[in-house]
Amino acid sequence: MLKSIICLVLLFTAIGVVAQETVFNVPSGDVLDRGKVYTEFDFSYRHEDELKTFTPRVVVGIGHRFEIGANINNIVAPGPSQATITPTIKWKIYDGGDNGWAFLAGDNLFIPVQNKTFDVGTWSYAEFVKSLKSTKTRFTFGGYYFSRDVVAPAQRGGAQLAVEQTAGKYVTFAADWFSGKHGAGYLTPGAFVKLSPKVTWYLAYEIGNTGVSHGNHLFLTEIGWNLN
């Protein structure tokens, strides 16, 4: 029974990766400029049962510190997929510039189109971002709300946190975390590697807030392209 629950939790892990610029899963303090386009392909793998997830996405800057996007979550193998179209929006409400502070809010709409277990769901959040120029460190801290059936049978709310540390021109170490015992409840440490001015490789490992000893941990890699 416990293994079945963990498998179901992992099936929803892809929900944590949404169609906007993120650290790994937590939305970052970045917002694309008007007309800029970013695409990404995410892949995760759990060794215990060889579960794989595939998540393509695209993000577009629309100006006035807004970006919108869409991705397809919950494409898995082996086993039945629950393909979910996810339109999103992120707004940098406040950008303090030299003081290093920003405040952002966003919403993500989940629309299952295959093997549906719910009709429509949402993930809403608000977060502060603080950048330290002296150490090239950035902190993100805020709160989230998931409607029922998106990451758990009931509604969920809690904290979402992230830290990023630049280590030279091409590498950034980072980690993000969602609190709670549900399908998005993971600590994800890893690194970003700038392969070229337009291509970034993300490499991380997701560790569940619960069930780790029963296999609730997995490898995550992402390739992102800035198209213009």
Describe the protein's topology.
Layout: H1 2-11, E1 37-46, E2 51-63, E3 66-73, E4 75-77, E5 84-95, E6 101-112, E7 121-132, E8 137-146, E9 156-166, E10 171-178, E11 186-194, E12 199-208, E13 217-226
Antiparallel strand pairs: 1-2, 1-13, 2-3, 2-4, 3-5, 5-6, 6-7, 7-8, 8-9, 9-10, 10-11, 11-12, 12-13
What's this entry about, in short?
With 228 residues, this protein is mainly beta.
Question: Superfamily at the CATH H level?
Answer: monomeric porin ompg
Sheet with most strands: strand arrangement: 1-2-3-5-6-7-8-9-10-11-12-13
Order of helices and strands: HEEEEEEEEEEEEE
**Number of separate strands:** 13
* Major sheet size, sense and barrel closure: 12 strands, antiparallel, barrel
Radius of gyration using CA atoms only: 17 Å
Strand content: over 45%
Percent helix, as a range, is: under 10%
Mean pLDDT score: 91
Distance between the termini: 48 Å
Domain count, please report it.
1
CATH class, named: Mainly Beta
Structural class by secondary-structure content: mainly beta
